[in-house]
Amino acid sequence: STILPSELATSSNQSPSQFAFYAALTVLEARGLYSQLPVSDLLQQGLRSKKSPLERHHLFPKAYLERQGVSEQRMRNQIANYALVEWSDNIRIADAPPQEYVGQYENRFSREEIQRMYHWHGLPENWTTLDYPTFLEERRRRIAQVIRAAFEKLQGW
Question: What does pTM read for this prediction?
Fold first, then answer.
């Protein structure tokens, strides 16, 4: 289906499709990106404290995209450009391009863990090498698949 991926082509931080993705990550018991902590735990902790342990992180940081000529805020803040990461990782990444920061985070995990993490977070294995528009399109499609997998899991309960 093409409806959900097209609904993810937004920069609204109150998008129902974005909430559906976060709910799907919870239902599927996914961990935060580059984290050992389940998304459900991270989201719950954020509800109880002023500083959430989980933040939305630009996979392609805004300043990096600006340097690449992506001047429209609407394009930089696409839902498909965000991932849920621990806030301390978000601070360390700053505005580094993905090719620079991803390796240090991948090194924390086994190859199998990275593959599973990328699957649940809708990231193609080679996402850091994709041009930005291709990355957004591919990730939207994959996020929709994750939401579908969660829906199918719920149907089986």
Answer: 0.84
